[in-house]
Amino acid sequence: MKKIVLLLAVLVCLSAQAQEYFPFSRIHPKVPRVPEYVVFAGDTVYLNTPDRYERMDRELISFTYGHTLSTLILKRSKRIFGIVEPILKANGLHDDLKYLMLIESNLDPKAVSVAKAAGLWQFMEATARGYGLEITSEVDERFNIYKETVAACRMLNSAHRKYGDWMTAAASYNFGSGNVDKRLQAQHQKNAMNVLLPEETSRYMFRLLAAKMFIEDPLAFGYDIRESEMYPALEVRTTITVNSTIDDLVEFAEKHGTTYYRLKEANLWLRDTKLTVKPGKSYEIIIPD
Predict the structure, then answer these.
(1) Pairwise CA distance, residues 159 & 257, whole Å
(2) Class of domain 37-229
(3) Distance (Å, rounded) from C-alpha 273 to C-alpha 270?
(4) Shortest CA distance to 263 belongs to which of 246, 286, 240?
(5) Within 10 Å of residue 159's Cβ, how many Cβ atoms?
(6) Cα-atom radius of gyration of the chain, to the nearest Å?
(7) pLDDT tens, per residue, the chain with 289 residues
(8) How far, CA to CA in Å, does 108 sit from each of 91, 105, 168, 170, 277?
(9) Contact, 283 vs 277, CB < 8 A?
(10) Which class for 49: exposed (0-12), middle (13-18), buried (19 or more C-beta within 10 A)?
(11) Which among 47, 91, 119, 263 counts the fewest CB atoms within 10 Å?
(12) In sequence order, what DSSP letters do the residues of the chain get, joined into one string?
């Protein structure tokens, strides 16, 4: 009897420790119910047909039980959204469009896909150049959160003007405008949610809606991340405008009171140990505190 009591005491202790260190275990996880509709960027998207219900349910299950990834997304959200939200607003885009970036990269600013799309917004090289982002052996502005977000804003605004609804605009961001046009025309539809698309793109639209629900109410998915557990924003001491070539970024970092590692972490777009600056060109380099 004493052994049983001792065992129960140990289990209770371990349970308490798990609740302290693993946010997902603090409450019993239960998948949120599929709502009748979700309002996304001002558009009301109805989910009250059998196929839409099931497609949405799949994404809600994914966020609920994707423990590691869902936790990391929540922890990164404060840092990344704090930078992106003002840029979206300045470019006339609804705050909800930040969730597109979430499903593109899981809010990992270093993300590179198998297809070589890069950055938070996952631009392919040709598309990035088409929207004015510089890509060389030394510079890749797909990793510059400010510039890549402005490029994404231009792309999304253009898609919304063309299609008139955000789900179809989102599908075109993932699948390409030309491919979406062909599917819409072939199937005599105007909205991508009513079109047979490749599975990745089909899931993309519903994952976008689920991401909004997840970020707005993580507790409903079984996640209890405290404010103190969120990853903090980068502390910036100053930003330096560079008009001439930097031959050695290690020396540059030391000269400005930081390390090469911290300099590169604050400026992910720097892709080499040096930075060549052509005449008439300049770059903004963040010096972390």
Answers:
(1) 44
(2) mainly alpha
(3) 8
(4) 286
(5) 20
(6) 22
(7) 555 545 544 444 544 454 444 444 445 568 999 999 999 999 999 999 999 999 999 999 999 999 999 999 999 999 999 999 999 999 999 999 999 999 999 999 999 999 999 999 999 999 999 999 999 999 999 999 999 999 999 999 999 999 999 999 999 999 999 999 999 999 999 999 999 999 999 999 999 999 999 999 999 999 999 989 999 998 999 999 999 999 999 999 999 999 999 999 999 999 999 999 999 999 999 999 8
(8) 22, 5, 25, 19, 28
(9) yes
(10) exposed
(11) 91
(12) -HHHHHHHHHHHHHHHHHHHH-GGGGS---PPPPPSEEEETTEEEE--SHHHHHHHHHHHHHHHH-HHHHHHHHHHHHHHHHHHHHHHHHTT--GGGHHHHHHHHTT-TT-B-TT--BTTTTB-HHHHHHTT--BSSSBBGGG-HHHHHHHHHHHHHHHHHHHSSHHHHHHHHHH-HHHHHHHHHHTT-SSGGGS---HHHHHHHHHHHHHHHHHH-GGGGT----GGGSPPPP-EEEEEEE-S-BS-HHHHHHHTTS-HHHHHHH-TTB-SS-B---TT--EEEEEE-
For residue 243 the two structure tokens come to: 């008009």
Tokens of 122: 């996952």
Spatial CA neighbour of 76 closest among 262, 232, 263, 236: 232
The structure tokens 């593109």 sit at: 104
Q: What is the residue whose two structure tokens read 């052509």?
A: 278
Residue entry with tokens 């129960």: 8
Distance CA 86, CA 95 (A): 9
- In this prediction the pTM is 0.87
The residue type found at 19 is Q
Name the token pair of 58: 């799949």
Calpha distance 87→154 (Å, rounded): 11
